[in-house]
Write a structure and sequence with these properties.
The structure is a homodimer.
Chain A lengths: L10 E4 L2 E4 L2 E2 H8 L4 E4 L1 H14 L5 E5 L6 H8 L4 E4 L2 H9 L7 E3 L6 H10 L2 E4 L2 H14 L4 E7 L9 E2 L9 E2 L3 H10 L3 E7 L2 E2 L4 H22 L5 E3 L17 H13 L9 E6 L1 H4 L3 E13 L2 E6 L23 E3 L9 E6 L8 E8 L7 E4 L21 E4 L1
Parallel strand pairs in A: 4-22, 5-6, 5-15, 6-7, 7-8, 8-9, 9-11, 9-12, 12-14, 14-15, 17-19
Antiparallel strand pairs in A: 1-2, 2-3, 4-16, 10-13, 16-17, 16-21, 18-21, 19-20
Helix pairs in contact in A: 5-6, 7-8, 8-9
């Protein structure tokens, strides 16, 4: 038997089945008429955001990094909550605009922006988070050609990383941003060229759960921004402190203490160095805001035994939930939180492995977990499916296609 | 500096740039007008097949497992070469039929076949490789309801695996097939129910490079089929011996000695046990047939240095080439074969890392390889892109989309 991750808050049993916000997910699947299915909850999204908002300094802007989940209705919902959107491609720009996001609230990071993506962003007044000197020159030329102002911040490759983060985005050679020591010259260059310099974007890592690590990184990020401002001789209007707030996926994971992180940040912002006295600060979160508010539902097509192991074979799989299968940049496979949605209140009485329908041994959604004994037709729920699920999985693999997504 | 895998045969320098079959890939990219781009070569596909055909016993059927690459024009080309197609979903059935494949030459394996997929397959006369007793009963009922004959083979979960294989598909508890000891009863059940029992499908593993391991597995597979036939009291009309022939991806990998494998198989088939005297044998290959005949071309958008490391930032990435990025079920990241296509004849004189355009540190296509010094606008080629590339990658990730594919 192998343990599973903790089921996020907000999921309850109603008449014995899995429900969210008083709605039974078995009925949602029936009404939708198809599985697999991603279900996202407005109520959980709002609650998560409001809890974070309450924990954070009032003047701190909270941005949504839409790479975590670009589903249109979810973007529209988030647009009513957050202060800004961070995009990572021209494709995400189109999705954000289609969802009604004001381009003045959008910033665009990404190391490989093509000219046509820069053009599209500059044309509508998006702020570029510039990743290199070469990109800065391309952006200046495009803005001049279009006769548009160039709103541009500098993404800094910090000399430190976020301790305990799942993905390090600083602290060494990186394809992201500009090494610290070259930043002041670029600030001066952009200002001299007449660009609307918007400040700094500093992102040190992602998916960290320890408050101390996040607090230390935020403190170092503010100090770095102040030092770079001093060296450049210019005060940044904005500083994006990055994100990195993780969510619990695996056995033993504990949620971030955002009250502690918020309190520390409040203290930091109350006494910023002079160079940042008029600076507006933001954090940028994707997974943290949306990850726990989604669940992936897949139906059991077959139940079989092999050499004493019970397999629940579903109509879903890694083509929708690559990360849950443990195959997306993971070294050691561990189980996401999982449940039998149609028997959510039943006692866990059998060790079962949940696999997908793909003809590859990689397609295992949950390994040897103790669950209520399930049968063909039962619904399996994989939690933490709100971020890096549908859009981060190879939907066309083995002739499959994308899963249906709905926002409740 | 880190080594790269061996560039497959058939790629040459022409006027200093990468060419295949006398066609310069830089010109293909210009004419296509967009990158990234998958280019597959008819000439290389044909040569690879013909070499294999010559090495194998004449009466051995060679099937194409289209999960490796389901691109329509490539399917049409393979249809003119191979003896059968193996599919893994109803979606693949549609793609195969659209490419003109005769359904009588198609077999359908996969542990999670839905009723509607079984219906579609039975309706057109596809052979099912049955994965469980439950699936067998569903198929019998559907065939009866449709008034169609049921062509059905039994997929066996062998008690051994393919040594050295990248993915083990036998030798223990598996979601694939039926444990050996339960197979004879199911053969009898299918025959008694009036099904057209087609024999056995026995697949022990994939991506093995050692001839000895493949030879041993084929020998054990034939012996297993004979034993099961004896126990069932019925001779299998067909036995699919599986595949598992790998291709070299990484430094030090050496191609399969197919002449040795073919010679051993010829000897085996010349003296099969009595129960298999009238059996027709097949092997089922995907990656081996198509993997080396494709190349992924992506253009350099930016060139930057960070802490002394040179990054070539491209317009492609893991959203098209997940496996090459080392993030698809890989424990230790190693470099695929890579080249600067637009400087293919130039001396390798600089250590450079090729990264994609995605805003994630996972998006690294080649790590610290010694390559000709490249600039913005140059084309990078990632080889071994003919299998498990486009369809096995999260094309929509970060607002990107699928890459163009062409067959030359």
């Amino acid at each position: 038997m192998k343990p599973t991750g903790p089921i996020p808050q907000g999921y309850d049993a109603l008449d014995g089945v899995l429900a969210v916000g008083g709605v039974k997910l078995t009925e949602v699947a029936e009404q939708t008429g198809e599985t697999p299915l991603f279900v996202y909850s407005r109520a959980l999204l709002t609650r998560k955001f409001n809890d974070l908002r309450a924990a954070m300094p009032a003047k701190l802007a909270i941005h949504y990094a839409m790479k975590a989940n670009p589903f249109g209705p979810l973007l529209e919902h988030m647009n009513g909550l957050v202060d800004g959107f961070d995009i990572a491609s021209g494709g995400e720009l189109e999705l954000a605009l289609a969802a009604g996001v004001d381009p003045a609230r959008i910033s665009f990071a990404g190391p490989g922006k093509r000219d046509r993506e820069l053009e599209a962003a500059i044309a509508v007044g998006v702020t570029l988070n510039c990743e290199s000197e070469g990109e800065a020159e391309r952006a200046l030329a495009i803005a001049q050609r279009l006769g548009k102002p160039l709103k541009i911040a500098i993404r800094v490759n910090p000399g430190f990383d976020l301790k305990g983060s799942g993905m390090k985005m600083g602290g060494g050679a990186k394809q992201f941003g500009i090494d610290e020591e070259r930043v002041p010259a670029l600030v001066r260059r952009l200002i001299a060229a007449g660009a609307d310099w918007r400040g700094f974007h500093i992102y040190a890592g992602s998916q960290a759960l320890k408050a101390e690590a996040l607090i230390e990184t935020q403190s170092r990020t503010i100090a770095l921004a102040a030092r770079l401002a001093d060296e450049a001789g210019a005060s940044p209007p904005h500083v994006n402190l990055g994100g990195g707030y993780g969510i619990p996926y695996f056995p033993g994971d504990v949620a971030v203490d955002v009250d502690a992180v918020g309190a520390a940040l409040r203290a930091e912002l109350a006494s910023v160095p002079d160079a940042l006295a008029d600076t507006r600060f933001a954090i940028e979160l994707g997974r943290y805001l949306v990850g726990e508010s989604g669940v992936y539902l897949t139906r059991i097509v077959d139940r079989k035994e092999s050499h004493g192991e019970v397999f629940l074979i579903t109509d879903g799989g890694l083509h929708h939930q690559l990360a849950a299968s443990g195959n997306f940049g993971t070294v050691i496979r561990r189980n996401y939180p999982v449940a039998i949605a149609s028997r959510f209140a039943a006692p866990a009485d059998e060790v079962q492995s949940v696999v997908g329908c793909l003809c590859t041994p990689l397609d295992r959604l949950s390994d040897s977990a103790m669950l209520p004994r399930a049968e063909v037709g039962d619904l399996v729920a994989i939690f933490c499916a709100g971020a890096y699920g549908a859009s981060a999985s190879p939907a066309r693999f083995l002739g499959q296609g994308p899963a249906r997504e709905i926002l409740l």
